[in-house]
Amino acid sequence: MRILVVANVNCDRVRLLDEPLHAGGRLAVRETRERTGGAGYHAAAAIARLGGRAWLSTSIAADERGTRLVADVAARGIETTAVVRAHPATTPLEILVEPDGQRTILYQPAAAPPAIWPEPGRQAPFDAIYVNTAAAMPGGATALVGEGAPVLAQVPVVVGEGTHPAPLLVCSADERPDLGLAEVWARAVRVSAGRAQRLVLTDGPRPIRIVGDGRVRETIAVAPIDGLDTTGAGDFFAGALALRLASGLALPDACAAAARDAASLLRARETW
Q1: What's the pLDDT tens digit per position in 28-57?
Q2: Would residue 97 be called left, alpha or beta, if left means φ above 0 and alpha means ψ between -120 and 50 degrees?
Q3: Does the first or last residue of the chain, that is N or C, have fewer Cβ atoms within 10 Å of its Cβ?
Q4: Spatial CA neighbour of 47 closest among 219, 261, 268
Q5: Which residue, 239, 230, 225, is CA-closest to 77?
Q6: What are the angstrom distances between the C-alpha of 173 and each of 19, 34, 73, 75?
């Protein structure tokens, strides 16, 4: 299966904390490390690790850190011909990881390299597209996939109208826990220009909900992953979901398989 991934690649500066975050605290950092990260990297690495072929379309800075990022992406078996070296500089994201694996991400929006859409070319059609970028999907995006192939868009629940006209959306409930299901679905409809058929709503360690027409249609149990660094877990899941859907699984079965895949990938991350 050939999956196009349109999403960013980052340099993550991960700081492992000795105790949970709390207001007014003075926290010790047990370890600091830099590694390749970002939605595009994690999703594409999951696809490649699970036996698919991932094409990554993004922008990476033409500096020393950027060169290391591109080398790491290629070392994972990810196709990099659609990677553009155009961003001025690589600014690391700061990721604070608590002892139970929960993480907090600090970033500078203006410094983030944008994901970019490739022109239809000899690589198309793909068997699926996974997109995770705030930039609007271009009108010709569907020309990059075969007829009936899944187009999966990961969106925050705060984006505008009509930017991601995909029938299948994924978002994380913990981004806005104050929003009820009806409002989350209404926003999914707006961001998809009315094309949303299903919304896959992840919620950390809690069950995945498959939502349609504002109602929960299916719930999928999630395996516990206590004590692991969960950075990239949602992107591992989304990449695996795109691959499982492209292979012909129905959405509930694909979600269940992708949840197992994500847990397995998190456990194996340090041995890749």
Answers
A1: 999 998 889 999 999 999 999 999 999 999
A2: beta
A3: C
A4: 261
A5: 239
A6: 25, 28, 29, 33
CA dihedral 221, 223, 229, 235 (to 10 degrees): -50
Token output for 207: 């069950």
Dihedral of the alpha carbons of 227, 229, 231, 235, in degrees to the nearest 10 = -70
CB neighbours of residue 180 within 10 Å: 10
H/E stretch holding 150: none
Q: Which amino acid is at 169?
A: L
Q: Among all chains, which residue has been given the structure tokens 């999703």?
A: 43
Q: Which CATH class is domain 2-271?
A: alpha beta
User: So where are the chain's domains?
Assistant: 2-271
- Both tokens of 78, joined, read 């990810």
Helix axes 39-49, 233-246, angle to 10 degrees: 50
pTM of the model: 0.88
The Cα 5–Cα 73 span in angstroms is 12
